[in-house]
Amino acid sequence: MAMKIRLARGGSKKRPFYSIVASDSRSPRDGRFVEKLGTYNPMLAKDSEDRVKMNMERVTYWLGQGAQPTDRVARFLEAANVIEKKVRANEKAGVPGKAAQERAKAKAAKAAAADEATAE
User: Fold this and answer.
1) How far is 102 from 74, CA to CA, in rounded Å?
2) Does residue 117 sit within a domain?
3) How confident is the model at residue 39 (pLDDT cuts 50, 70, 90)?
4) Where are the alpha helices (H) located in 1-120, listed in sequence order?
5) CATH code, domain carrying 41
6) What is the rounded CA–CA span in Å between residue 119 and residue 10?
């Protein structure tokens, strides 16, 4: 059975609250899980100690059993120094899209034409 350590959403509309759970990877996000490992409340301030609470003994147990954390849970574990930090490189993050590049070219061409007209 492939195990995941992931978030299960709770809370009402526009007031999210997540449980950190160990579950079978085939079960639905908010469906059946094997064990509740902690909580995550994104509505609290980032420096609040109640924002993320985890039972570290059980988390390390499930990691030892081969459970794979999801991206968000992996970031929590990295912050708690349970797992090593991964190098994340998204080279396309700062690159504008195709339409924005075309607008920038058009704006540069228009500015060049205006500079040329004032130079004459």
Assistant:
1) 38
2) no
3) very high
4) 56-64, 71-79, 98-119
5) 3.30.1320.10
6) 64
